[in-house]
Description:
The structure holds 2 protein chains of 2 kinds.
Chain A: H1 11-20, E1 69-74, H2 79-91, E2 96-100, H3 103-106, H4 130-136, E3 146-150, H5 155-168, E4 177-180, H6 185-191, H7 198-215, E5 219-220, E6 222-225, H8 227-231, H9 236-256, H10 261-264, E7 268-274, H11 278-299, H12 305-308, E8 312-316, H13 328-342, E9 347-349, H14 362-377, H15 392-415, H16 420-429, H17 432-449, H18 478-494, H19 497-512, H20 519-527, H21 532-543
Parallel strand pairs in A: 1-2, 1-9, 2-3, 3-4, 4-5, 6-7, 7-8, 8-9
Helix pairs in contact in A: 2-4, 4-5, 5-20, 9-11, 9-15, 9-16, 11-13, 11-15, 13-14, 15-16, 19-20, 19-21
Chain B: E1 17-22, H1 30-41, E2 45-48, H2 55-65, E3 69-74, H3 79-92, E4 99-103, H4 107-116, E5 120-122, H5 128-145
Parallel strand pairs in B: 1-2, 1-3, 3-4, 4-5
Helix pairs in contact in B: 2-3
Amino acid sequence: MARVGAGGSTNGDEWRELFARSHVRDLDPSTISGVPLQPVYGPDDGEFPGLFPYTRGPYASMYRSKLWTMRMFAGFGTAEDTNARFREILRAGGDGLSTAFDLPTLMGRDSDDPRSAGEVGKAGVAVDSLADFEDLFAGIDLAAVTTSMTINSPAPVALALYVAAAERRGIARAALGGTLQNDILKEYQAQKEFVFPPRPSVRLVADVIRFCAAEMPRWYPVSVSGYHIREAGSTAAQELAFTLANGFAYVEAVTAAGLTVDEFAPRLSFFFNAHIDFFEEIAKYRAARRIWARWLRDRYGATHPRSLQLRFHTQTAGVSLTAQQPELNIARVAIQALAAALGGTQSLHTDAFDEALALPTEKAARLALRTQQVVAYETGAPTVADPLGGSHYVEWLTDEMERQAEAIFAKLDDWGRGSILEGVLAGIESNWFQSEIAEAAYTFQRELAAGRRVQVGVNRFTEREPGGDAVALLAIGAEVEQAQCKRLAELRRHRSPGAVEDGLIAVREAAADPTANVMPAIIDAVRAYATIGEVMGAMAEVFGRYVERAAL
Amino acid sequence: MTGLDPRGGLGPGVGHRVLVAKVGLDGHDRGVKVVGRILRDAGFEVIYTGLQQTPEMVVAAARDEDVELIGLSLHSGAHMTLVPRILDRLRSQALDIPVVIGGIIPVADGAALQELGVAAVLTPGASTDEIIAAVTRAIEDHAHIN
C-alpha cells in the first residue's frame, strides 16, 4: 500500500516521527548473538505499526515501549481463596488480575439459590454481595493494579460492586483501571451464559459503556470476545467475523443512545483465542486490526486514532489441551503464546497444562505464567514489531481472513438491512451463529475420527495411561458451598431490609425506563448489600428471562 | 462396530432412542452437540433437552420421551451433586434407564459415580468410535440384565 503524504513524506517518515515520540524501554536491543535490531522492518512505502490501518500493530513502538500484560485468569472457592491466589500471582510477577466467577454468579444467581446447588465456587470464585467483593480484593492496591472481570449478563452488577468496594477504601471510581468483559452477544452465539433476552441485554451493555465514558476514563467497559466462539468450535475466520460484527453492533447501539463514536470507541477492547494453527492465528490478529480500523473510519466515521486501533487480550486455546499425556499441553501453550506475541497482543493468559482435567493447581498456573515469561524475556519475540509482516504466506493469509470475514459482514448487513446490530440479532434469533459453530465443531470431530487432523496423544502417538489421575488436581469441596450459604444467610440477617428494598425498586424503575442508565441505581443497591441474585431478579421482572431454542 | 452411515441409515444406533442433556447452569454445549450429532449419524434417534435443565427436568424428559439411555454433559464441576440427584430421582420414580456421562470429570469422581450406578464415563479426547461403543454397550448390557 504505497502512500506518499502531501509533503512528500512516506509511511516510513511518519512512523519514524511517531516512534521518536514514544517512550521506549530498551534503547539498544540486539539478538542473543549481538546483532543490533531496528524496531520494525519493511519497505518505506509499506504498512507500519501505529499507522492506519494498523495491520502491523496498534502502536509505533509496540513491545519496545511496554511488553504485553501477563494477565492470569484465576478464581475458585471463596473470596478468601481467590484473594490468596491473586496475591500469589502478583508476587510471582504477574501484573494484572483477571477474575473468574463461578457459574451461579455468571448466571446472576445467589449461592443459596436451589439452581446453584453443586456449582458454588467450582468453576470460579463464589461472590454474592459487596462483603464478598471487599474480601476478594483485600490487601490489593486497586489504584495500582488493573483488574479484569470476566462476566457478561450480570456485568453491570459486577462493575457496581467493584466501584463500591474501591470507594469504601477511598479510591475514586475515576482512578480504577481494568476491563469488564460485558459482551453479551457472544453468549447467545457461543458460551450460553445469558439471563435476559438479547435486546434489553444489549441496552445494558450500552449503559455500562455510557457510564464508563462519563465516569471511569481508565476502564475498558467491553471486551468483545471471540475466545468463547472459537472454544465452542468455530473456525478462525468465524471467530474473527462474529467478534468484529458484535463490536460493530455495540458501536451502533451506543451511537444510537446518543454518544459519538470517538467518545467511547477508544475504550473498546477485544479478546481472541490463540489456537494451535500458528500462522492462521497470527493472520487472524493482523486482519482483525485492519478490518476494525477500516470499518470504524469508513462506516462509523471515527477520527480519533485510538478509536481505530484494535487492542486485544489473548488466551491460549483451552479446547486444544488434551487430557491424554497432559504434559504435552505445556508445549502447545508455549507455541500459542508465541503466536499471540508475534500477532501483537496487549495482554495474555496462558492456560495451565492440567485444564483438560480440572481447574488448574497453583503449581500448574505458575508454570503457565513462566511459559509466557520465557517467550517474553528469552526468545527475542518482542524485540521487532510484526516480525512476520511481509512474509508472502502470512500476508496472503491475512488477506484471506479479511476476505472471509467481509463475506460474513455482507450477509449480516443484508439481514439487518444496513444495520449490523439488527443483522446480528436476526442471526441469533434464527439460530444461525449457533448452528454455524456446531457444524464447524462437528466437522473437526469427524476429521479427527478420520485421522485427517492429528492430536498428539489422542489419535496418534498414544500411550497407555496410568489408571488414576497422574497429576495432582485442584478439588473444590462441598464445604465452599456450605460456607458461602452460611455467610449469605448472615448477611441477609444483618443488613437493612428497607434499604435493600428501596435499592431494588430503584433498579426496577431504571430498567423499565429505556432512557435511564441502570448503573447509578445498581451502585446504590449493592452499597445497601443487595445481592447479585436480587439485583438480577429485579431486572428480570422488567426484562424477562431468555430460554434458548434447543437444537443440536 | 458397524461402520458409520452419515445418512443415519445403517449405523449401530438404528432403532434406539436416547436423550442427551445439559444439567445445571453450565452453557458449554460444544460437547453435547458433537456427541448428539455423532449418535444421530450412527443411527440413534437423539433428543436434546437444551440448556439449564434441573435434575427433575432431565428425568421428566427421559420418562416422557421413553428413551433407552440418558447422556449427560457436565463441564462445570457440579457432577458430584447433579449426577447423584438424577440417579436418585430415576430410582424413586422406578425408571430403569442407564446413564452415561461426559465432560471434565476427574478419574476419581468418574469411578465414584460408576459406583453409584453410572454406566460409563466419557472424558475429553474420547473418539467417535468410543462414544458410540459406550452408548451401544450401555443399552445392550442394560437390556441383557433385564
